[in-house]
Amino acid sequence: MTGLFLLQLLNGAQFGILLFLVAAGLTLVFGIMDFINLAHGVLYMVGAYLMAMFTAQTGSFWLGLGLALPAVLVLGLVLEVTVFRRLYDRPHLDQVLATFGLVLMLSEGVRILWGSAPLSVPMPAALSASIPLLGPMRYPVYRLAVIGAGIAVALGLWWLITRTRAGMLLRAGASNRAMVSALGVDIGRLFRLVFAFGAMLAGFAGALVAPILSVDPGMGDNILILTFVVIVIGGAGSIKGAFVAALMVGIIDTVGRIFGPIWLRAVMDPQAAAQAGRVLAPMLVYILMAAVLAWRPAGLFGRAGAR
Amino acid sequence: MTPLLAVHDLHKSYGALAVTNGVSFTVAEGELHAIIGPNGAGKTTLVAQLSGQIAPDRGRIDYAGQDVTRLDMPGRVRRGLARSFQITTLLPGLSALENVALAVQARAGSSFRFFRPAAAERALNAEAADALAEVGLTDRAYRLAGALSHGERRQLELAVALATRPRLLLLDEPLAGTAGEEAERLVALIDRLKGRVSMVLIEHDMTAVFALADRISVLVYGEIIAGGAPDQVRANPKVRAAYLGEDA
Amino acid sequence: MSAPRLLTRPVAALALFAALAALPPVALALGDPFLVVVGGRMLVFAIAALSLDLILGYGAMVSFGHAAWLGLGAYAVGVLMRWGIDDLALQVLAALAVALPVAALTGAISLRTRGIYFIMITLAFGQMAYFFFVSLSALGGDDGMALTHRSTLAGLRLMETDEGLYYVTLAALALAFAGLWALVRSRFGRVLVGTRENALRMQAVGFRPFPFQLTAYLISAGICAVAGVFLANQALYVSPAYMSWQRSGELIVMVILGGIGNLTGAVAGAVVTIALEEGLARWSDHWRLGFGLLLVLVVLYSPGGLTGLARRLTGGRE
Known about the structure:
- The complex is a heterotrimer.
- Chain A is mostly helical.
- Helices cover 74% and strands 3% of the residues of chain A.
- Chain C is mainly α.
- Chain C has one domain (10-313): ABC transporter involved in vitamin B12 uptake, BtuC.
- Chain C is built from 13 helices and two strands; from the N terminus they run αααααβααααβαααα.
- In chain C, helix 2 (34-56) packs antiparallel against helix 9 (209-235).
- Chain C starts with 9 loop residues before the first helix and ends in a 5-residue tail after the last helix.
- At the A-C interface, helix 4, helix 9 and helix 11 of A face helix 5, helix 10 and helix 12 of C.
């Protein structure tokens, strides 16, 4: 049982890291630009699809990754220039509608190009081993690599935000957009950078997850909602909040799904426990969110006066 | 006699900046108490704390013998502590009458009525019309608030505040942006209210202040540096120093 | 942004309802009975759009989880039918009995937030409802439940025919419309609109926004749940897909298309959106691509977005 728990804990951490990668870009966009972007999830999905395509064409995981990332970056930039740039000063409602339209377009576009059936991406040979965990249990090296990559990105982001000038401007912009603009900083360029970088992170997450999950047109939607939950719990505009919240959400969701029914068996019969577990598990995260918001309406690390 | 409003050692800081730094003063029933001070003195923040818009970090606000420091704005309004705004906050899509009727509605009966049209309620409209007459806007009653002139909008602001039947009215720069005849009209209006409504008047217009105030407090960098009767304040050397070059 | 007047043109409303009432005979004359089915869907979503307009248009609360009420209403029908209860009135009561407490809870939590947070938390609550029903295998889970017959009205099988269902739904729509028409002009409506326009002003005259917003949220959820009851009857099918966030997005599109804060517009918006979807779907399987593109283009290039376009198309507002 301890082995299973440890296994799920690690899976939860890996899922959490993935959520963090997707949420990091989006929380900055929310917090600094006050821009609600429903299309962020499809960037994650497109990252996975591009990864599938390039890996299949080149026959190599690493080449696929190397091609997919810049491709997502370009897509992010194109979207920013053609659509998002015009929406920054619009009311939230317009942003919701336009990005909703984009979600419809891109999801359907993916369906047209690749069909609705899920694609699979082979794991890279170098990372396809598994290491012993506890007793007879083994854990895939790839998943550990994902966790490692995520932590590396988190550290990199932390360094960027706290040690570079661009990061300082970002933090300033998060508290007072008008002031930063008044200081003569080209807000437009800053936004574009944040946006493109966030898009790339989301695509990176999608590419990373491609060998582990099935790549299908619905994957963007699922991750998007959870990403929102992460941002709400962590507080818009806070990378630290996104990291903490993402890990919380990832672990609670994963452990809850597996162990919920197991723990419920202590109080009810196995069949009832299984059904109850299946119903409650997906809701755990939302209950967590509701509880956090009841206590802190701006999220754990959000600003009290946040819009 | 206990004062109507007693402010005790109010403090409010934004980060390292102490905007309100130990402000204390009292307002007696029936008094018109003016608060003056150079720009950046913290007058807006003070009014916001008095009206309940923001909470002070430290200190106490006693109104009508009760501690209202933690009471929110609607709560204070219902006890008779109301405010008019420096930047007009009327509802531009409603007529002048409707704007005032809304304030009457807040006081008169439940607003959880779902079926009768509010515009047809005679009692609401009558009281609203009275308030408009009080400020001299009767002939503008059906004009959209957004279509009124600036001076008329300042008058309407007052009408809305009056419709809440306040005991103490916080007037936040009621003459802002007005001059000449418009300003005189507003001053006359405020003068007419004296005795019926206690008032705290925040103003830059010194003619108006010295014409209307019973007592004056001078706010500089978040602190009250002088207070008392208008003549005393006018002669006070500290006040003159603070206002050097800013005399209106 | 100019504030929409509370008054919508009664003539436009009457004309719209007259046109809707005339649809079944027209369909008969054209020899296309499927039009009545499509029309029935339009009516259902018109009720839902009206309910959303109350909080979105008049209250400025952008709820991205509104489709959850549609689903709850539909499932109320599904469950009651399983227990042999076919009566429409009882089903409506059951729908309300489920939707209102849930709305009270989620509304109380959601309304502690504003702006982007509100949008996201309502989205999350909507998803919660979706996943709940997906995982409930007793009610069919992902596959949903098929219904064998429609609800009865006072013991009569009036709604078994498409025309019968159409007119009962139309009556419900008219009732909802009339109720909301009075509501937005009432004392309550005034406070709601005032809070949308300037919450500070409302507090400064003595109104606390929360009780009014929560009440509006409850009323809106209840009306939408009733729409869900009719949706189940229309499709003879109940599924978690009714509550997906894409559905919630569609509802927002309908309200915007009609011009927010405009009851007649909400109905018109629903009609036009369904018509567009049906029309595009007949053209291609991948109609969502075109629909999405249309949305993006209109929001970007019509000044004032969709609302501006709608305003110009409907001849503007006074």
